[in-house]
Amino acid sequence: MGTWSLNLPAMRPANRGLDAFWTGMDVEWPSTEAPPENQYEPREPVAPSKPSQTIQQLEERQSFHPKQRQINGAFDVLAGLYRVSDAKAVNRFLIHRRFVRELLFEAYPRIKRVFGERVHAELRLVEDMEDNLERLRVNIISNDAQARLALEQFDEEWWLDRVQDSEGLLDFTLKRDALRLE
C-alpha cells in the first residue's frame, strides 16, 4: 500500500474580512514584515481645491472638444435655416437636447412644403413662468391669409405625431411679419 502526503496551505488569519468571506475570494494578505526605512516615500501635499468654474468658462473649454465642435456645426446649419433670436442662448439650450435639434432638422422641409418657399421660421427661447422652464419656440412668419390653415395642416401631417418626442420643450406658432404688412 502506498502512502499519500497532503500539503495544506499555511493557515491564514481568522479575520480575512467580510468582503473575502462573502465573495469567497482569497485576498492577498500584506506581509507582517516592516518595510525597510529607505523604501518609505512621503506623500505629496494635496493642492487646495480650486473654486468651481463658471458656466461661461466651461462652455469656452468645451468649444475645443471635437463633440462640441460637431454640436456647434449642427447649430450653425440650423442658424442658416432658421432666423435665430439670441443665438448664444438658443445654442446653450440645444447643446444637451439632441432630440430637439433633430426635430428642428425634420421640421424645416415640412414647414417650407406646407407654408411655401417664401416663408421664414424663427427660433426663440421663451421661459414659461408657470413651469419655470425654458422652451424653444419656432415662429413661422407669414402674412398669407391661408397661414392658419397651413399651420393646421402642418400639425396634422407631422407635428401631432412628433410632439411627444419634444418632451414639451418645443412648439410651433404662427406670427405675422409686421414689417411686410401691406
What is the topological layout?
Blueprint: H1 18-23, H2 55-62, H3 66-81, E1 83-85, H4 87-95, H5 98-115, E2 120-128, E3 133-141, H6 147-162, E4 170-175
Parallel strand pairs: 1-2, 3-4
Antiparallel strand pairs: 2-3
Helix pairs in contact: 3-4, 3-5, 5-6
Give a short synopsis of this structure.
Helix content is 40%, strand content 15%. With 182 residues, the chain is α/β, with parallel strands linked by helices.
Describe it for me?
- This protein has 182 residues and is of the alpha/beta class.
- The chain has a domain at 66-180.
- Helix content is 40%, strand content 15%.
- Strand 3, helix 6 (147-162) and strand 4 (170-175) form a beta-alpha-beta unit.
- Helix 3 runs parallel beside helix 5 and helix 5 (98-115) packs antiparallel against helix 6 (147-162).
- It is globular, with a radius of gyration of 32 Å.
- The N and C termini lie far apart (118 Å).
Q: Which strand order do you get reading across the main beta sheet?
A: 1-2-3-4
Low-confidence stretches: 17-24
Helicity, as a percent range: 40-55%
Structural class, judged by helices and strands? alpha/beta
Strand residues, percent: 5-15%
Tell me the number of helical segments per DSSP (H or I, 4 or more residues long): 6
Rg, Cα atoms, Å: 32 Å
Shape: globular
- Could you give the order of the helices and strands? HHHEHHEEHE
Q: What's the story with the biggest beta sheet? A: 4 strands, mixed
Quick one: how many beta strands? 4
Mean pLDDT: 76
Q: Measure the end-to-end span.
A: 118 Å
